[in-house]
Amino acid sequence: MAEYLRVFPRYGLTRRQIERTDRLRRAGDWAAACVEAGIAVECTLAGLDAGLRARVEADLPFFAPDLLRWHAIRMRHHSRLNYTSHELRDRGDELTLPVWVRADGAQAVGIGVRSVPPYRSRLHIAGPGEFSAAAGLDETPEYWDVRHAPALITRCGGRDPHAAHVYALLAAGRTAEAWTAAGFDVDLDTHHEPHPTRERLFRANLTWNLGDFTPALPVLAATVRAYARRHGVAAVWLTAERAEPVRLVVDRLDAERPRLRGEWYGSGWLHAVPRLPVMLQDRPPDYIDLLAGRATAADLHPLVAAALVPDEPATGPRALHLPEPAEVPCGDEIHHVGATLQVPHPAEWIERELALHALGGPVPGGCAGVVFRWRAGRRGLPEPLEGFREELRERIRYGEADTLAALRDEGLAL
Ligand SMILES: [Zn+2]
Known about the structure:
By secondary structure, this protein is α+β, with helices and mostly antiparallel strands. 40% of the residues lie in helices and 12% in strands.
C-alpha cells in the first residue's frame, strides 16, 4: 500500500498519561515516567559501557518517553521501517528502534515495539543483530527529547514556501520536477541495458519506487550531505517501498548538486554504499497525515502539534467523549438513547423485554433493543453509538490507561 495512503494508528496515549509522564520526568524519575507512558524498563545503566552510559545519563533529564512511544506506535506501521526488521535476528514481532547507539555500533539502548495493539514496548539494551541502524532514532532526537522536539518541523522542511512548493509537486505526481526543485540532478534515463526487457524492468521499478515514497524532500539534499560528511561517504542508497530489484541511489555528494539515480540491487558497487537511515529520509507519519488532511493539531501529541502546527492550540491528543444520544424508533414514537443507556421507560419494562428474549422470544426492538445490543456487545446499534463503541474498543485495545475511567465519570453504562 502506498505510504501516503497508509493509516497510522493515533490511539494509545491519552493527554492525562502525557501530563503525568511529563511531571515524573521533571521530578527526575525517568523509569517511572517510562512506565506511565506504557514502556516497560528492562535495562539498567550499569549494563552499559562508560561512554554510552555518560551520553544516556546526560540526555535522561530531557528524555520524554511519552513522545518516543507516540512516534514509535506510528513507526511500527511504517512499511520501510518494518522491512529493516527482516535484517535482524528473529525477534518475534518486536522491532527495536535504537535511541542511543555506542560509537562502534555494537550496542544500543532502544525501544522494542511489538507490531499489534497494545504495541507492547520495552526499553532495553540491544546487541549486534538485534537492532538496525536504518531504524535509528539516535540521529533524530526530535522524536524523543524535549529540547529537540520543536525541530520536528525542520525535519519536514520547515514552513517556508519552497518546502510547500516541493510537497505540492510531489502530491501532483510531478516527481522529477519535485526532486529537481529540491536541489537534485535527476538521472533516470542514462542507465542502459543491452536487453530491452531488462531495460523496461529497470525503468518500471525506478518509477514505482519514486512514486511510492514519502521523503522529507525539501531538506533531503542537506540531510544526505550532512550524513555523508559525518560518515565519510560519497553516496547513499534510499529505502523505498519496494526494496528490489532496483534501488534509489544518491551520489555525487561532493558535487554542487547531488544526483538521484537507480542501481540494480545486486550490483557490487552498491554493497559498499551505506543506507540513509529511514528516520533521516522520511517525513514523520504525523506530517504525512497533516499534508493529507487526515489530522489536525487537536489529534496530535502536544509537542508534535506545537512543532508542526504552531498557530493552533496544542490540545491533543483528542479524548473520546460520550456521543450525542441516537434517535431510536420505539413503538409509535422516536426516543433518544445515548451511551448512558438512560431510556424513557420504567426499568421493569426494559427488564421484561430482555427477559422475554432470554426465554426464547425475538430480539427486542426500540429502546429495549438498544439496551440489549449494548449489554450483549451485539452489532446493529444506531449511529453514533456503534461508531463510539468501536472507537472505545480500539482505544482500550491500544492500551489507553484512563479513557474508560474518564468515560465512566461521564456516565458511560457498561
Ligand atoms: Zn423507547
